[in-house]
Specification:
The chain is an alpha/beta fold. The chain contains twelve helices and 21 strands. Strands 4, 14, 15, 16, 17, 18, 19, 20 and 21 form a nine-stranded mixed sheet that branches. The chain has an eight-stranded parallel beta barrel with strand order 5-6-7-8-9-11-12-13, surrounded by six helices. A hairpin with a 4-residue loop joins strand 14 (about 290-300) and strand 15. The longest helix is centred in the middle third of the chain and has 18 residues, at about 215-230. Bound molecules: pyridoxal-5'-phosphate. Pyridoxal-5'-phosphate binds near residues 107, 244 and 283.
């Protein structure tokens, strides 16, 4: 079976390696649970988008909620990427990492007036507005601060991305975006409000999408609207088709970014829209397969119906299995001689039955062995919590010059409650 994340992830003489570094050795040196990211894998993923987008004016914005670690943001900022943000806190991170606010797209259904003001003062490229109420609020804030907010409307194209309900965002009954049939009147309202400049249109139909058709359907719906909006004398410079391209967790075969983009550009050209700036907001597909979560086996519990492999990583470190019943491949980093093959539920120490990382996995394991949960670079650390007063894991990056760098040390558990106060 090929490893998701190859060629960066490979097996060399029995040892699982990431960009040439044996993962078991990193786990022994830095302790577990441990996230390890390959910077070169991230650069390769973003480079593929950039090369394919080159024929048309474009802006590639990394959707940083997938993995907001500063060193990850810095990696993309240095490549000239912009960022798709969903909060004021994310904007602060972009700036701290050396990103350029003028290449930031501000998405999200619930922006506060404070966040709007912060983003206006920083000079973000565009606010992706999701409702009429938000337009009015943004107009007030812009007028009050004497600045102009460039806006795009997030339109709900009502296409089915064919993915998990929790990560499908382009259907009518989602909380996201303005309904397709409300778009033209909402653009007219936006054009009439002070402090706003209409610059584009956007959508984001979901996540972990493994087909090209939903993108082309959504693009067609957007281009129909561009034409309708421009017929009212409102010019739109950019078309933003969001993010959502899937990765391989097990046997999914998502299209390559280059393949998707070639078809999007061809469709735009065929419809006479090749002069517009194409904006994309990929998150998962830039970082997902660039990272792994390493965890150590603590106890093997053989039961009547089930065998449990208790590891030191848990749902607080990696929530995707508990949250979405997500399947993430699990590999023994270097199965020891004592290990015997069996079928295991790989579970963590958190006091919840939902605390599992993998179910019914055939693995050769022994206590103290190191396991790797693959494709953990996206929505891994990003969703981590301190549930059960557990410290969040160390994060390492193997940089493009082959060095291993700690990009965030393991939390100190006493710091977790350092700001809390006892009552008299
Ligand atoms: C989450 C999100 C993205 C990125 O989605 P991925 O599936 O990680 O590529 C892009 N745009 C918006 C508005 C989002 O909310």
């Amino acid at each position: 079976m090929t490893l998701p994340g190859s060629p960066w992830l490979a097996r060399q003489a029995g040892e699982l390696t990431l960009d040439g570094h044996a993962l078991r050795g990193l786990a022994r040196e830095y302790g577990t649970p441990l996230f390890v990211y390959s910077q070169r894998a991230m650069q390769a993923a973003a480079g593929a988008y950039q090369r394919a987008l080159a024929p048309q004016p474009h802006l590639l914005c990394y959707a940083m909620k997938a993995n907001p670690s500063l060193a990850v943001l810095q990696t993309f900022a240095r490549m000239g990427c912009g960022f798709d943000i969903v909060s004021g806190g994310e904007l602060q991170r972009v700036i701290a990492a050396g990103g350029d606010a003028s290449q930031v797209i501000f998405s999200g259904v619930g922006k506060t007036a404070r966040e709007m003001e912060m983003a206006l003062r920083a000079g973000v490229a565009c606010f992706n507005v999701e409702s009429e109420g938000e337009l009015e609020r943004l107009s007030e804030v812009a007028t009050r601060t004497g600045l102009t907010a460039r806006v795009s409307l997030r339109v709900n194209p009502d296409v089915d991305a064919g993915t998990h309900p929790y990560i499908s965002t382009g259907l009518k009954n989602n909380k996201f975006g303005v309904a397709h049939d409300r778009a033209v009147p909402t653009y007219r309202r936006a054009a009439a409000l002070p402090g706003l400049q209409v610059v584009g249109i956007d959508c984001h139909i979901g996540s972990q999408i493994t087909q090209i058709e939903p993108y082309l359907d959504a693009l067609d719906r957007l281009l129909d609207l561009v034409e309708a909006v421009e017929a009212h004398g409102i010019a739109l410079q950019h078309v933003d088709i969001g993010g959502g391209l899937g990765i391989t967790y097990t046997d999914e075969k998502p299209p390559e970014a280059g393949e998707l983009i070639a078809q999007v550009l061809a469709r735009m050209k065929a419809r006479g829209h090749a002069h517009r700036t194409l904006v994309m907001e990929p998150g998962r597909s830039l970082v997902g397969n660039a990272g792994v979560l390493l965890t150590q086996v603590m106890y093997l519990k053989r039961g009547e119906g089930k065998n449990f492999c208790v590891v030191d990583a848990a749902m607080n470190d990696l929530m995707r299995p508990a949250l979405y019943q997500a399947y993430m491949q699990i590999e023994a980093c270097a199965p020891g001689a004592q290990a015997t093959e069996a079928t295991w539920d790989v579970v963590g120490p958190v006091c919840e039955s939902g605390d599992w990382l993998g179910r019914d996995r055939v693995l050769r394991v022994a206590p103290d062995d190191v396991l790797a949960v693959l494709s953990a670079g996206a929505y891994g650390k990003a969703l981590a919590s301190n549930y059960n007063s557990r410290a969040r894991a160390t994060e390492l990056m193997i940089t493009s010059d082959g060095q291993v760098r700690v990009i965030r040390p393991r939390e100190d558990t006493t710091q977790l409650f350092a700001a809390e106060q006892l009552v008299p």
